[in-house]
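agent: user wants the structure for Tetratricopeptide repeat protein from mine drainage metagenome. delegating to structure tool.
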Amino acid sequence: MTLKRTTRIAVAACAFALLASCDAGTLTPERVGPPPPVGTPVIHEAVDGLLVGHRLMAAGEYELALSAYYRAASEHGLNADVLSAIGSADLKLGRLGQAEERLRSALLLDPTSVPALNNLGVVLMNEGKIPEAKGVFQNAFALDSGQSDVIRKNLTAALAAMDKSAYDQPQNTSKFSLVRRGSSSYLLLSTP
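agent: tool returned. relaying tokens verbatim.
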């Protein structure tokens, strides 16, 4: 076959496909599919992306949680809670640079966000920036009025890391815990 003949055949096939799709009866509502099973709940509005992300984080599904947090960003905008949540998911995925950037952005929007402060401290500890992490943990502890055990433990570990004589072994950062904000209360994530 020559190139000219192949081109004519391809044009004819495309024209035939276009004409076949123009049939008025091909996209009628009767051909959509069977109805849903009886008793299927009707969902009128989607579940909040932050709530879904928090549940996925608790289940250890960090990549899916990150997707849910991005969906929440499209719903709520990039507010401090959303940025803090995205930073926490990035931290759990080992993306320390991205996590630090998101958490610092959250703190620019809300400098009193205790979860963002705590999680930034965790990032800084993982990056080996212990003096800065200690200051961030102290700030979180003060804003929280010392009520969170997780923040207290993180601060204690950071202070111990600063004191060479009390902490001679290599630092194990896996004991640091993340804090996230739910609906007007602090929810604590356990470290898997």
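agent: one observation worth passing along. Residues 49-167 form a domain with the Serine Threonine Protein Phosphatase 5, Tetratricopeptide repeat fold (CATH 1.25.40.10).
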